[in-house]
Amino acid sequence: MMISEKVNQALNKQITNEFYSAHVYLAMACMFDGKGLKLLAKAFRKQTEEEREHAYKILDYVLEQGGEVKIEALPEPPAEYPTVLAALEAALEHEKLVTSQVHDLCALAAEEKDYATGHMLGWFVEEQVEEVASMQQLVDVAKMCGNALLQLEAYMIHHGS
Ligand code: MG
């Protein structure tokens, strides 16, 4: 095994965190769909797929390094939020949390002089800058739309991925 037990365990935890992110966004996608916000729902479903890819990226790395992957149980994500804006704000807070998780992993890799893991995590550091920025943008647009949620859908026509 080319990674320490400690790093292996921390990476396994992050695999779970990324799958949990997928869970959170899938629940949000369903809530948005239920409110008729089909394009916002579609964007969050796509984000769900991205989160799974994040999990697989770490999972493949652990396997490649001869580590042991442990697939853990996921907590149940919130099914409802009081408003669409509240859900988007929760998504933004969630991405900020993931950023801090990634930074903690980077600190551990540095402490362990594990340069390969540190390098792999560099991709996640960059990705998180993008994730936080795009969630912040959605929150800002939702605030501008206020109760006119159809305008948020109109925005998603051009900016939804
Ligand atoms: Mg992620």
Topology:
Blueprint: H1 5-34, H2 38-64, H3 84-111, H4 115-145, H5 149-159
Helix pairs in contact: 1-2, 1-3, 2-5, 3-4
The structure holds magnesium ion.
Question: Which descriptors would you attach to this protein?
Answer:
161 residues; 79% helix; Ferritin; binds magnesium ion
Structure in words:
The chain has helices at residues 5-34, 38-64, 84-111, 115-145, 149-159. With 161 residues, it is mainly alpha-helical. The chain has one domain: Ferritin, core subunit, four-helix bundle (Ferritin). It is elongated. The mean pLDDT is 97. It binds magnesium ion.
Summarize this entry quickly:
With 161 residues, this protein is mainly alpha-helical. Helix content is 79%, strand content 0%.
**Rg, alpha carbons:** 17 Å
Return the structural class.
mainly alpha
Mean pLDDT value: 97
Number of helices: 5
Integer tally of domains: 1
Overall, the morphology is: elongated
Helix content: over 70%
What's the main sheet like? none
